Amino acid sequence: MLLWACIAVTPATAVTVQYSFTGTVNQVSPQLSSTFITNPSPTAMSGLMTVNTTDTNTASAILGSYTITNFSLNIGGYTATMGTSGNVVIRNGPPGTDWFNVTVNAPNGPVVNGLAPRIFEIQLRGPNSIFTSDALPPSSPSMTSFTNRNLWRLVFGTGTTRTVSGVMTAVTPVPLPPTAILFGAALVALVGLGAGNWKQRSAGSRGQSVGG
Fold first, then answer.
1. Percent of the chain topping pLDDT 90
2. Which of 13, 80, 165, 204 would be 107's cystine partner, CB 3.0–4.6 Å?
3. Least confidently predicted of 4-13, 104-113, 136-145, 165-174
4. pLDDT for residue 13 is more than 70
5. Do 87 and 94 meet the contact criterion of CB atoms below 8 Å apart?
């Protein structure tokens, strides 16, 4: 009830979901080694993304596409933010495999060795049993479920050879802060109280009119 109340009074919350993500850094192209190093830590790469829950690919029943509205990335102190565009694609096979793909075009980050970040990608692919629909997953599938592919990469410059890449260790929906839920519930309570007072005043006015 509290969650419904919060969504009802904060529409922006109802149409977006935030995901945190982490990964290792397994490969660094020589052209980028002045800024990045390999790091097996499961949180060597981390970030957040906010995704609109409206499917922009309604023509397909197995392929959902969702717009990324906000994005941040940290790789060993190198930071980048939302680029020109981005989306999350959920594929619920068959006939193919289940996918969770993330693409952010032209992330806003520092140039490295004369090369600007061109694209950030997460590619997770597994058997057909991971997702039950092409909707954004409300909970976190295990990374070990994606047996066909588990990859993230940040590509610099043209082509795909100048990259920092690694393996994803987690993609987790970020819950709504409890304070926001309480704030929403409080607003609903105030609205309900106001409506109750209005009804009482309205009934009183009608009674006075009849008595007069």
1. 63
2. 80
3. 4-13
4. no
5. no
Element (H, E) at 6: helix 2-9
Other Cβ atoms within 10 Å of 201 Cβ, number? 10
Q: Please, which residues have CB within 8 angstroms of residue 166's CB and are 6 or more apart in sequence?
A: 23, 24, 25, 26, 27, 44, 45, 151, 152, 153
Cα separations (Å) of 112 from 31, 44, 86, 101? 8, 18, 22, 25
Provide the 3-class DSSP secondary structure of residue 190: helix
Rounded distance between C-alpha atoms, residue 73 and residue 163, angstroms:
15
Is residue 32 packed enough to be buried (19+ CB in 10 Å), middle (13-18) or exposed (0-12)? buried
Strand-pairing partners, residue 85, are 105
- CA 150, distance to chain mean position in Å, is 18
Whether 171 and 140 have beta carbons less than 8 Å apart is answered as yes
Q: CA–CA separation, 178 vs 109, rounded Å?
A: 32
Radius of gyration of the chain, Cα coordinates, nearest whole angstrom: 23
Q: Is 193 helix (H, G, I), strand (E, B) or coil?
A: helix
Domain ranges of the chain: 13-174, 177-212
Residue 122 scores a pLDDT above 90: yes
